[in-house]
Known about the structure:
Layout: H1 5-18, H2 22-42, H3 53-78, H4 84-105, H5 113-131
Helix pairs in contact: 2-3, 2-4, 4-5
Amino acid sequence: MSSSPDHLQDTLHRTQRGTQWLYFTVPTMLLFSSAIMATAWLGHLRYKEDMTFWMATLFAWLLVLPEYALNILALRLGYKTFTGGQMGAFRLCTGVVCIAFVSHYVLGEQLTLQKMLGFAVMAFSMILITRSDKRGGAE
């Protein structure tokens, strides 16, 4: 079997085309994972007077187990399409943003202009991190 440059180029093109769905799916999975984790971390505080410590712990753990599985699946699917650093940065950025939304919408805390500007800076940082590797993936 020959490995002509045309054959190698065709194989590379089919491989890249076959992973295009990962560019949307993996970040979406990591975003949902962050949203679940933020809810587990802060959601029980809304019912602090109604839930005991152990009930809150059980509530959080029931949320964290599927979150952890979703996070691990996203990382395993995305590795080689994204670098570990890119996925980690995306997870941290979305985690902080999800914390802000949960604290605002679930706990009723103020979402100030200063906080929103801070999140915009983090989003810009995420763009810089994901665009830093021109090939888009790990070696």
